[in-house]
Amino acid sequence: MTRQLHLNAFLKPPGEYLAAWRHPEAKADAGVRFDEVLSFARKAEQAAFDALFFADLVGVPLESQDVLSRVSVVNDSFEPTTLLAALAARTSRIGLIATASTSYNEPRHLARTFESLNVISRGRAGWNAVTSLNDGEALNFGLDAHLPHGDRYARAEEFFDTVDGLWEHKPVIVQAGASEAGKQFAARVADVIFSGQRDLAKATEFYAEMKQRAAGLGRDPDRLKILPALSVITAPAAGAAQAKLDALTSLMPPQVALAHLAYLLGGFDLTTYPLDGPLPRLPESNQSKSTQASVYHRARERGLTIRQLAREISDDSSTVVGTPGQVADHIEEWFHAPAADGFNLVFPYLPGTLDDFAELVVPALRARGLFRTQYTGTTLRAHLGLEGTP
């Protein structure tokens, strides 16, 4: 059978870009308007996406009120498993993936929640198993600080095995860890890996490494699907696509850009350092070690100041901007490298970038024989080519 691309819709209303809520086409409160979220879900299902994915935090990041008042954070949204249960009743084929923390849940409760969702949706459920990110989450559960990185993954391993032993029908398992502990956990338990590589060479290396790790654990590497994040802004003409990006990035307040950079580096305060000086070496993050390392690499490789780095990251420089054909070229190159089995589509603002991808890029991918024209199965495992596997 010809290898087919997998597309996942990462829905974070009103959009992934931190200033997306200010976009004239977006609704700032879309994350808590079910009719809006349902319209996004139906658009993705009409385009035959494999699944919807909703991220989650269980605490507001510890930022200043000045910054928090200028962003739409993930907590301005529904609890994801509740939301997916509602969407299951209003959709028929698309997969439904929710994030739930192994750090701040208990195994039996989580096992019951996801098996219920899987039964309600008739096999369309998926669990994105995470270890949580920040101290703001820890404070909501009576802790003074987030668990150390090693302890989080030790708990995650035991947590997963307990949950797995309680299930009669197993949802699809998604994982996104990129540290050593995260990669080993993903290679052992995941059906799908969401990754964050933006460079083709590094993505190809990561792809090969994860397939090899899975094989080394006695798994069939072809049944582990790797989906890097992909942010796209497209239009029939390249100039029009660039104009869309320029209009979006003009909405970003500078203090939010700096706070976002600080968050990616582990939540450290950067305001005490000269903004036009180099990025200092900060203590090792207890959030995402791989994200912190990639930001440092970017700053050193490019010789960027703190101000330049914050601006570049806030300008969403990793977004692929161009015509539908140019975007399809990018996707096809990564797919055949191979660096990806598909992509976790991140939408800078909603509904515009989802509509554009579904109406312009998906037909271009179908014309190249890369993506399905319609669903051929009814479960998420069937969409992913994993039917018949535990």
Alpha-carbon Rg, integer: 20 Å
Class by SSE composition = alpha/beta
List the domain count as a whole number.
2
Give the low-confidence spans: none
Q: Oligomeric state of the chains?
A: single chain
Helicity, as a percent range: 40-55%
Q: CATH class of the largest domain, please?
A: Alpha Beta
Q: Strands of the largest sheet, in order across it?
A: 1-2-3-4-5-6-7-9
Beta content: 5-15%
Number of separate helices? 15
CATH topology of the largest domain: TIM Barrel
Give the strand tally.
9
Mean pLDDT across all residues, rounded?
Answer: 91
Specify the CATH architecture of the largest domain: Alpha-Beta Barrel
Commentary on this structure:
Helices cover 43% and strands 12% of the residues. It folds into two domains: 6-237 and 318-383, TIM Barrel; 253-314, no CATH class. Helix 7 crosses helix 8 (200-216) and helix 10 packs across helix 12. It has an eight-stranded parallel beta barrel, surrounded by eight helices. It has helices at 34-46, 65-68, 80-88, 107-120, 135-139, 149-166, 180-189, 200-216, 238-249, 254-264, 289-302, 306-314, 324-336, 352-367, 380-383; strands spanning 6-10, 51-54, 95-101, 125-130, 172-175, 192-195, 225-234, 320-322, 342-346. It has 15 helices and nine strands. The protein is an alpha/beta fold. The model has no long low-confidence stretch (mean pLDDT 91). This is Nitrilotriacetate monooxygenase. It holds the Pfam family Bac_luciferase. Belongs to the NtaA/SnaA/DszA monooxygenase family. Residues 20-338 form the Luciferase-like domain.
